[in-house]
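Input (structure):
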């Protein structure tokens, strides 16, 4: 984001551009030697704390970003994609230049003007979840979304599995498909882009009373029998599980992360092949 800081004189705009840059491939903030000095800590609070939150979010999203970078090397797909990318025949999406996809799962709607507390967003077709509060939005229409200082409109597409890194744990955020099934590939290596690698393939299938999750792996990083995270956490959005079976065995409720049954924590050695979550869609 180095290019956007050269002309920034307002703390609010610096913050807004930092928020947008969190979801771009190139993420670097600095100033020029011929302008007023500015850095994330230049403007004090509350800007510094909000910037820190978005920087942490960037690190949490690293599994998703790293997989997108690998996908770009394999298929040539850009990490950042225009709204018409998945709907090229929908002409109203071709003129939108103030929102973008990051991969297939995330829709980013930046705030580009000082003082803005909301903005209009043209949603592509499909069902969308607010990343911040799980509010559900039906697509293929225009909506006005709130944009308080500590957030920007950030949406997740239904059917997505969004991987995040939280204290060396892999958190799989599952947003159920509206119907049918969807898949996601997670790529891992030693961080050098070459040598040993591992691909984890996840597939979710929606049924009337629950969700089935399949998990297959291939590759040799760090070993086909090892997982490069300490634990796996499954976090549901728009769904409340009440019973869980993993590889045909019902799971002891004591393994659940919290009493709401929204998430399930597994040790690194407990990778499963198939899990069924029975419950209610919200």
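Output (sequence):
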């Amino acid at each position: 984001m180095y290019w956007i800081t050269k002309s920034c004189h307002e703390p609010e705009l610096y913050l807004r551009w930092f928020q947008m840059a969190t979801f771009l491939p190139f993420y670097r903030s600095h100033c020029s030697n011929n302008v007023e000095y500015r850095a994330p800590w230049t403007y004090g609070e509350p800007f510094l704390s909000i910037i820190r939150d978005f920087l942490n979010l960037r690190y949490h999203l690293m599994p998703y970003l790293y997989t997108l970078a690998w996908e770009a090397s394999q298929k040539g797909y850009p990490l950042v994609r225009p709204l018409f990318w998945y709907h090229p025949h929908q002409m109203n999406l071709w003129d939108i230049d103030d929102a973008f996809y990051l991969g297939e799962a995330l829709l980013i709607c930046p705030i580009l003007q000082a003082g803005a507390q909301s903005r209009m967003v043209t949603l592509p077709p499909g069902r969308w979840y607010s990343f911040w509060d799980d509010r559900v939005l039906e697509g293929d229409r225009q909506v006005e979304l709130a944009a308080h200082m500590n957030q920007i409109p950030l949406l997740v597409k239904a059917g997505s599995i969004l991987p995040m890194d939280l204290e060396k744990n892999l958190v799989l955020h599952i947003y159920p498909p509206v119907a049918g099934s969807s898949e996601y590939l997670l790529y891992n290596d030693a961080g050098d882009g070459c040598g040993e690698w591992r691909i984890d393939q996840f597939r979710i299938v929606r049924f009337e009373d629950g969700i089935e999750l399949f998990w297959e792996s291939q590759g040799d990083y760090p070993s086909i029998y090892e997982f490069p995270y300490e634990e796996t956490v499954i976090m549901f959005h728009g769904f409340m599980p009440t019973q869980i079976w993993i590889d045909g065995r019902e799971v002891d409720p004591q393994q659940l992360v919290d009493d709401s049954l929204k998430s399930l924590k597994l040790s690194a050695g407990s990778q499963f092949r198939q899990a069924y979550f029975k419950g209610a869609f919200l």
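Notes: Residues 69 and 79 are 7 Å apart (CA to CA). The first strand starts at residue 80 and ends at 81.
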